[in-house]
């Protein structure tokens, strides 16, 4: 007796509500279905089904056996699907959400290489700085910058740590002086990023391991780091910004770090996607590619 075939036949009979319906679904004879279940019962030494001319019902032993048998078949199906999807070629449209500055300045530089690797895949990139409900708005994956990921039904893969920097132009520091300690920022025009809970409170890590928060003020606040970068380059003041926005300016010397010995709290870069037991090939390909890109980013 093929026990696995008999197990599948038994489950199908239970779910179809009878031997005739199950046999029709599997395109086999009623006699074969009945024989397989009887052989299974003989092997187990227990009656699994109560049979009457009008009704079929699980016995107590049948109920327990069906639950375990169904789990075995589901696990096998999941294993098959995982392998099939893993080897399937990514295709279709991949909808990605990303923060405005990150999507514009960073992702845009490597996304064409991802698309070249997967020519059957098209990308719909939506950049904004509001909270996006991935499931409700139909996104496959999102890139998010956060200090901590809140508990949710979403899955999150950490890709990198993005330092938060204070920067200013050499001309601004020449005119207004260079701060030597966080308290000195009270004398400066500080440019603040509004998409954080307390934009005017900057928390610094001190050399002794403690943290110190200072309240700052300035003539410009903005909900995008791109605007703060431009203002800093123009000599307007000292800006707080992510390293991926200004790393090239720092390399050229058009911006310089301020208080580098007192680092601000960094944020983390995550790839976030709806919970699913098996990632679709296109989402898996994207996350694997992003993992490669951010293994050692220049701005880290």
User: Could you give the count of β-strands?
Assistant: 14
CATH superfamily of the largest domain: Periplasmic binding protein-like II
Structural class: alpha/beta
Q: What is the average of the pLDDT values?
A: 90
Taken in chain order, the helices and strands follow as HHHEEHEHEHEEEHEEEEHEHEEH
Description:
- The protein has helices at 3-16, 19-26, 30-44, 60-87, 100-117, 134-137, 170-176, 225-233, 243-252, 281-293; strands at 49-51, 56-58, 92-98, 121-127, 141-146, 154-162, 164-168, 190-193, 201-205, 211-215, 221-222, 238-242, 256-257, 267-274.
- It is an alpha/beta fold.
- The protein has three domains: 3-87, Winged helix-like DNA-binding domain superfamily/Winged helix DNA-binding domain (Arc Repressor Mutant, subunit A); 92-160 and 268-293, D-Maltodextrin-Binding Protein, domain 2 (3-Layer(aba) Sandwich), CATH 3.40.190; 164-257, 3-Layer(aba) Sandwich (D-Maltodextrin-Binding Protein, domain 2), CATH 3.40.190.
- The strands form four sheets. The protein has a five-stranded mixed sheet with strand order 4-3-5-14-6.
- Helix 2 (19-26) crosses helix 3.
- The longest helix is centred in the first third of the chain and has 28 residues, at 60-87.
- It is elongated.
- It starts with a helix and ends in a 7-residue tail after the last helix.
- The mean pLDDT is 90.
């Amino acid at each position: 007796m093929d026990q696995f075939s008999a197990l599948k036949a038994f489950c199908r009979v239970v779910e179809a509500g009878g031997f005739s319906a199950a046999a029709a679904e599997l395109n086999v004879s009623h006699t074969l279905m009945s024989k397989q279940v009887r052989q299974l019962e003989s092997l187990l030494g227990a009656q699994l089904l109560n049979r009457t001319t009008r009704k079929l019902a699980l016995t107590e032993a049948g109920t327990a056996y069906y639950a375990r048998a169904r789990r075995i078949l589901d696990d096998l199906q999941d294993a098959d699907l995982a392998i099939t999807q893993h080897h399937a070629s990514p295709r279709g449209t991949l909808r990605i959400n990303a923060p405005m500055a990150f999507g514009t300045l960073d992702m845009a530089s490597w996304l064409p290489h991802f698309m070249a690797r997967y020519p059957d895949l098209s990308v719909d990139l939506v950049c904004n700085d509001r909270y996006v409900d991935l499931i409700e708005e139909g996104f496959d994956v999102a890139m998010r910058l956060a200090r901590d990921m809140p508990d949710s039904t979403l899955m999150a893969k950490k890709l990198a740590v993005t330092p938060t920097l204070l920067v200013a132009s050499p001309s601004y520091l020449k005119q207004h002086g260079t701060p030597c300690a966080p308290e000195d920022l009270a004398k400066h025009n500080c440019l603040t990023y509004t998409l954080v809970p307390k934009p005017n409170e900057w928390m610094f890590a001190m050399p002794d391991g403690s943290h110190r928060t200072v309240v700052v003020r300035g003539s410009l606040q903005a909900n995008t780091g791109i605007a703060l970068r431009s203002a800093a380059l123009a000599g307007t003041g000292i800006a707080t910004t992510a390293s991926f926005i200004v790393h090239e300016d720092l390399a050229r010397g058009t911006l310089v770090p301020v208080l580098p010995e007192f680092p601000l709290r960094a944020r983390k870069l995550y790839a976030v996607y709806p919970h699913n037991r098996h990632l679709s090939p296109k989402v898996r390909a994207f996350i694997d590619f992003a993992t490669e890109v951010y293994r050692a980013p220049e701005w880290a």
